[in-house]
Amino acid sequence: MSINMPHQLFINGEFVDADGGKTYKTINPTDGTPICDVSLAQISDVDRAVAAAKEAFEQGEWGKMNPRDRGRLIYKLADLMEQHQEELATIETIDSGAVYTLALKTHVGMSIQTFRYFAGWCDKIQVRHLIKPNRNLTFTKKEPIGVCAIVIPWNYPLMMLAWKTAACLAAGNTVVLKPAQVTPLTALKFAELGTRAGLPKGVINILPGSGAVVGQRLSDHPDVRKLGFTGSTEIGKQIMKSCAVSNVKKVSLELGGKSPLIIFSDCDMDKAVSVFFNKGENCIAAGRLFVEDSIHDQFVKKVVEEVKKMKIGDPLDRSTDHGPQNHKAHLDKLVEYCQIGVKEGATLVWESLMYDGCCGLVHGGFFFEPTVFTDVQDHMYIAKEESFGPVMIISKFKSGDLDDVLRRANATEYGLASGVFTRDISKALYVSERLDAGTVFVNTYNKTDVASPFGGFKQSGYGKDLGEKNCHSYCMHFIFVTVHIFHYLHLMYMQNSTAYRRKSLYHLVPNVSEAKSFSLITNDYFKHEMNKNV
């Protein structure tokens, strides 16, 4: 299989060099060697991309396009992604370190599903008509916002692009997207496929570069009307502030997490032990496990047995279970994180290689072996802060003490996801209703769907990705002036044939009960008008 990896900026339908020809090297985390030189966007490049997106929205064919035609283009893009799924998965693996099997099924597979799902919404973002009790007719119309900026992280490069960009395009907006500086390649390949699908120039613009330059300029830019961000809480706060100060642009934020997973003694142990999805580089990773004390030792033993079975190595090898961490700086943070855990007194129960007192470097790349801590107390750093890596944090709770373990699980500033494992449905419902998180998994974990909204509470952000609501979040809502129904019908009656207008107005009404009411109103009105004119 031949692989073509674009490496320039993508602006206004063309791959172009950055201003001044500036570049940087993107690194293969498997061995630490450069993959290629990638154009490094500057402030002037951001301005060019935003101008192209604005022109495409306000003057180009995209802004005038029938929603169904827009949907057909997005469907075609999804088809092209499917045709190139192995190439996309290979690029994703080389650039991010994700194991190929997961990259193909999840990173790329769910991206394709996302574009297909939102392509179907293009012609379903409809005008809403309401008949109010006082017989007024109100029109609520949804329109695209305009130029939208999207800033995505490095853990799921293509999938995070899809979650935000698909909804944004379906609503009729144009996009300027900044991929993570360390994982730009699948975003650039996506731009190539978008051109082949027939997306007009300026609709999609891709700017690899630093957050301090590209991300900041997008946050400040007066012509950007919405910014969608996935990343750390710290950067999310900065973006929120910049967006408010610049032009009060709309913002949606999917930020950090420290997701609790409560495991009761009556759980299915085999399912509950499933760990280290995507090398732990997962925003909804179970960041802290609370295990009922009666099964604690058995559970820990089972976890260690599963870790021993994992094959660590080349992520392109189809038999590999665990690849390298995404980049060197992140690896260093994981090492420091585990050092803090050891220093604070947590028990390190699994480590096959030592590196300054904790699990560490193997195989020559940015590899970090799965790590398991027990005896973790609530006050410890590793109990409160996210590792974003393959580090399992296990704490005990007393059998039967549901309210106390819930209190401990909710004692965090994050609220992205959570989970519970138990065969007792009453217990599962009791716990899930009281966990402060945007998603609660019951007897499963890491199972998301493109039709289900995804997002968090508290300092895990606000706004939702995926689902119908995400489409509407990329729209402006216009409420038209309310017109009394009799005056409205009179105008229609005077201007057009009675039969045609009665039929068309009837079909404006959104549900059966309102339609019946509307029909009675129109019948009474037309009888009155006919009697007047006899």
TrEMBL record:
Residues annotated as the enzyme's active site: 254
Record protein name field: Aldehyde dehydrogenase 1 family member L1
GO molecular function: oxidoreductase activity, acting on the aldehyde or oxo group of donors, NAD or NADP as acceptor
Protein family according to the UniProt entry: Belongs to the aldehyde dehydrogenase family.
Gene3D superfamilies: Aldehyde Dehydrogenase, Chain A, domain 1, Aldehyde Dehydrogenase, Chain A, domain 2
Aldehyde dehydrogenase domain segment(s): 15-475
Keyword Transcription: no
Species, as recorded: Kryptolebias marmoratus
